[in-house]
């Protein structure tokens, strides 16, 4: 449990008096808990200014990378003359730069500010998206997909890290869920939007699928121009918070180490140890396997589900609409499981549970005969987004909870997301058109990946529990006799005073 949730209510009366500008901090042993009225009020101010912006940006990000699936059933492959596996290659090439540039991107983020860096990224990928609407060949599409991966690479790790700099550990997953729900919302919105846009077929002499890319790219550029002004960078720089509220937010974050004596450093400087500490951390490698339960499954699903729905007997245009409820179910599950995870102060249970739901869907879709049973197949298609979307939010929150100090967290989260998104290379190639409508390779591989991800979550839970028990066997006096306060803070999550979230 976070320190702030253990501590008393002595300061609530003091907070409600709105201290003068000379007040620079709160008594570190008397911070209000999350349940305090004043704390909730301050957090709501942060939620209102931060979350809607991030959700909007993520909707645009996920929409721009996944709308190729909608464009494909609207005629992209036919117009460009794509043959054999060329469409899959265009899906796959996105993930090489997208995955490999995430760590460098988060390092740039730490040197700039989140609002400036994300604004630059959005302007770049919106331009690439617009240009994708005028490609004339397979090679043109391949090139724009590559540069879309280059320009989108930094957004998700930057946004995920940004959330960890605003919220304490058991306040994080609900906010991460609201942000990540943008992916599921964009999946639903993509179908509706594409259905409307393809009605523009012939306007300006362009096919409907081209207008999907052009209009969504222009929208991204337009929003990107505003990001520097609407996205707050940190509690310390938040213009909408009073000075004493900034101090209060930062003090809570710095003391959120899992014990009353532990602290987390948010002002650390980059060092080679920040990078080597991430690369040598075996738990982060296991976390990547855990994340594949989302990335391989969801990318395969997002790119293929419109085609799967068509195979159930729906016309192309109607298939765009029929995918919408699938993603709505994903949004609901993300929010529900996140609320439960924060309420019960546990992560691994809400990785294993949702992934198990996705497994049921894969097993059922493998078992149902290829021909017929369209309604039953459609029903079990719901299980995949319900499970895979919710599981990844628990993992990302878990990872953010257990990495400190701030440079290690920024690099570590980007490193895991690099490995995670390499799973997109697999996901974009496992649903082979020649295996439609049964897709045995696709569903079978998804099932195996989910099993591996569940095992990885179990390994992490056991490892974190053992480390916590070992640290709990030491008294604070013993620890302070061996290390200075500065050393303990610099050690981050390796400090004996730091407790891992399970």
Structural commentary:
- The chain is mainly α and 502 residues long.
- It has a single domain, classed as MFS general substrate transporter like domains (Growth Hormone, Chain: A), CATH 1.20.1250.20.
- The protein has 25 helices and no strands.
- The termini are close together.
The total domain count is 1
CATH C-level category = Mainly Alpha
The biggest sheet, with number of strands, parallel, antiparallel or mixed sense and barrel status, is: none
Intertermini distance: 10 Å
Strand composition percent: under 5%
* CATH arch. level architecture: Up-down Bundle
Report mean pLDDT, rounded to a whole number: 84
- The radius of gyration computed from the alpha-carbon positions, rounded to a whole number of angstroms, is 23 Å
Task: Name the helix and strand elements from N-terminus to C-terminus, one letter apiece.
Answer: HHHHHHHHHHHHHHHHHHHHHHHHH
Rough shape? globular
- Could you tell me the CATH topology label: Growth Hormone, Chain: A
Low-confidence stretches: 1-32
Name the structural class.
mainly alpha
Give a summary of the structure in a few sentences.
With 502 residues, this protein is mainly α.
